[in-house]
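Please decode residue identities from the backbone states below.
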């Protein structure tokens, strides 16, 4: 783990620096207004349908790398019995606590490096959730899935909704954004000094963060090697990441832009 500590520590600092930018402006105010609604949901149609299919109501659920908790609260609104959100950015988790207080929903948050979870971390969750932009922050994918599998109960289900690794080959800001700019098999690490934002805006330099590309075969094989069984893998031609990637949608020759992967822990 020591060799990865630099990456995870740098990434935590980058996310903590990013948090204040996401607690300002119209988007945050809209979130504060909507989170009180009984049917509040931060999920798009694809993820909502996937979660409806596996079932959320009455289950103990954990979200790994939950950011500001908006999806944790969405799971609660869907009827989850208990929801724990884990993230290593205390600044974003503080936003999650504010949203929970406003909504009146009971959720738990744990600030921890996923590679160094406290021994007392709850487990035996019936459902786990990983969403957009988590796997690419992980320097050791197999170790990551070992830990995630350890959070699940026997026969527990893990739902992943992520950017498709094929999309990592393209840079929408390049002179020719439709020409691959990176090998599909280039794992990194890739350093970035740009401030992390969701809306694609350029906020200038920020703390260095580290990004890792993982091919689909590595993702699926790492999960299987950690004792998870594949139930379903679906690929989609729509984008679930920053708005600048929208240029790859609705073209004649469509590419895979995101996917859902449903896995079950072997009993």
């Amino acid at each position: 783990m020591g060799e990865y500590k630099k990456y995870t520590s740098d990434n935590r600092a980058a996310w903590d620096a990013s948090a204040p930018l996401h607690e300002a402006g119209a988007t945050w105010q809209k979130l504060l207004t909507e989170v009180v609604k009984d049917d509040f949901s931060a999920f798009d149609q694809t993820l909502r349908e996937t979660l409806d299919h596996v079932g959320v109501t009455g289950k103990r659920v954990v979200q790994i790398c939950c950011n500001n908790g908006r999806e944790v609260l969405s799971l609660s609104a869907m009827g989850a019995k208990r929801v724990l959100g884990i993230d290593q950015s205390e600044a974003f988790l503080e936003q999650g606590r504010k949203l929970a207080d406003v909504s009146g929903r009971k959720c738990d948050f744990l600030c921890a490096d996923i590679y160094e979870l406290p021994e007392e971390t709850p487990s035996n969750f019936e459902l786990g959730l990983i969403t957009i932009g988590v796997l690419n922050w992980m320097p050791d994918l197999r170790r990551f899935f070992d830990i995630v599998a350890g959070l699940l109960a026997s026969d527990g289900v893990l739902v992943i909704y992520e950017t498709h690794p094929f999309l990592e080959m393209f840079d929408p800001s390049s002179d020719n954004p439709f020409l691959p700019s990176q090998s599909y098999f280039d794992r990194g690490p890739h350093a970035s000094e740009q401030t992390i934002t969701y809306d694609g805006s350029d906020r200038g330099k920020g703390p260095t963060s580290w990004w890792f590309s993982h091919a689909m075969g590595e993702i699926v094989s790492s999960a299987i090697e950690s004792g998870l069984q594949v139930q379903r893998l679906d690929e989609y031609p729509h984008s679930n990441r920053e708005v600048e990637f929208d240029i790859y949608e609705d073209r004649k020759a469509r590419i895979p832009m995101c996917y859902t992967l449903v896995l079950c822990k072997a009993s």
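Observation: The helical segments are 2-18, 26-34, 45-54, 70-77, 90-103, 141-151, 216-225.
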